[in-house]
């Protein structure tokens, strides 16, 4: 049974739901929108996601229905340790996760460079982008943000020309139909949104969700509200 039919049944059998917490996405990559969540509208005050990303959530619709939507700033995995002293770490997006990685990296005497632009490596033309050209030869590229921020065709060119030595992608542009090029490479590692799927990370994210909910009902104000601007309209 699909989630959009299970949810109304759950609500009718368990009573009105005032708080809705989402731990992970629902396969096959359903969007958290009006079609899925409409049965919550009459009673739900706040929806909290245990992940940092919210591109799968219709925050505009939630705001229109007066539902506060929050993400979890505690949704950070553990950074594995390997001695990279003397190298430069470039971080695109110095948010909660980016700052967490930067703090970890300073222990290994890495030089940290960062940029807070949210759109990165999106090429208007289908060829080598200036962002890749600006990188040092032999760069290791890791994307744990959103699939859409990376031009995958430009990555193919960069890897073939050895501008990048290796790539690790936790997210892809089209996760329902992955470019077959990735499966033929042993120098590109892909995984389906597993970057935060560690027990410790999940525990932190869930505790963060409960802290958001507690603050919302105790003070009337939630932490880490994604659709605050829309709610104020």
TrEMBL record:
Entry-linked InterPro entries: D-isomer_2-hydroxyacid_DH, D-isomer_2_OHA_DH_cat_dom, D-isomer_DH_CS, D-isomer_DH_CS1, D-isomer_DH_NAD-bd, NAD(P)-bd_dom_sf
Coiled coil regions, renumbered to chain: none
Domain D-isomer specific 2-hydroxyacid dehydrogenase catalytic: 18-75
Keyword Protein biosynthesis: no
Family annotation (PROSITE patterns): D_2_HYDROXYACID_DH_1 (PS00065), D_2_HYDROXYACID_DH_3 (PS00671)
Gene Ontology terms for molecular function: glyoxylate reductase (NADPH) activity; hydroxypyruvate reductase [NAD(P)H] activity; NAD binding
Gene Ontology cellular-component annotations: cytosol
Keyword set includes Chloroplast: no
Every D-isomer specific 2-hydroxyacid dehydrogenase NAD-binding domain range: 76-119, 130-193
Domain of life: Eukaryota
Pfam families: 2-Hacid_dh, 2-Hacid_dh_C
SUPFAM superfamilies, per database record: Formate/glycerate dehydrogenase catalytic domain-like, NAD(P)-binding Rossmann-fold domains
Keywords: Oxidoreductase
Family: Belongs to the D-isomer specific 2-hydroxyacid dehydrogenase family.
Protein's name according to its UniProt entry: NAD(P)-binding protein
